[in-house]
Amino acid sequence: MSRAPLYKRVLLKLSGEALMGDRSYGIDQHMVERIANEIKAVRADGVQVCAVIGGGNIFRGIAGVANGIDRTSADHMGMLATVMNSIAMQNALEHVGVDTRVQSAIPMAAVCEPYIRRRAIRHMEKGRVVLFAAGTGNPFFTTDTAAALRAAEMNCDALLKGTQVNGVYSDDPLKNPTATRYDHLSYLEVLSRDLKVMDASAISLCRENHIPILVFSIHEQGEFARVLRGDGNFTIIKNEE
User: Fold this and answer.
1) Fewer beta carbons within 10 angstroms: which end of the chain, N or C?
2) Is the dihedral of CA 14, 43, 87, 204 positive or negative?
3) What is the CATH number of the domain that holds 14?
4) For residue 154, is it within any domain?
C-alpha cells in the first residue's frame, strides 16, 4: 500500500523547456498532456496544487537582450510566453477532467483572471489547480523567483521543481558525467556552492519562509506523485535540522 502524501498544498515549478518534449522550440502537446496527467494523479491523492511555468520554450528574456532588445521589453515578452504556456496547460488539464484557473500577474481579462491571492487560495480549497502566469509581473525577476513568491503567498508546504535531471548535482550531469548528485542540501549550501538550481533570490525567499524545495525529473512518469510520498529520486533543500 502506497504512503500518503507528505504535503497538503504544493507549488510545482516547471521550465518552459519541459513542455518542448523532443522538439527544439514551442509546445509538444503530448508532453503537456503527460504532465497534466501527473498533476491529475497528485490531485486524486488529495493534494492542493498550484504551478508556475516558465516561457523559455517560446521566448527567453536574456536571449532577447543578447539580440539587442531592451531588458524590460524582453522580460515583458518572456512573461507573455508564460501566459501562453499556462493556457496550453489549462487546456490539457481540463481535457483530463481537472478544473483549472490561470491567474496572470499582468491583467488580461479576456483570456485569464488577474492574480488575486485570496481567490487563488479559494480555488485550491475547491480542488482546482491554479496556474500563475506572467511571473511576478515585473522585469528583472525570473519565474523561479515568481514560484518562490507564490509558494509563500499561498502558504504552500513545499515547492517542487521538475527539471531535466533527477535532483541537484555539483555540475551539469548532461555535460559532466562525473558530477556528484546530492540527496540533501541546506539553502546556505546551495547559495555558497553556487549550485544552479534556482536563482539566489528564489532560494533566499524559500529559506526565509521555511519552504522546502524538492528537485526531481519531470521526465520520469509518475515521479511527481512518488516524490510527494517521499519515494522516487529527488534532492530536498531545506534548513539544517
Assistant:
1) N
2) negative
3) 3.40.1160.10
4) yes
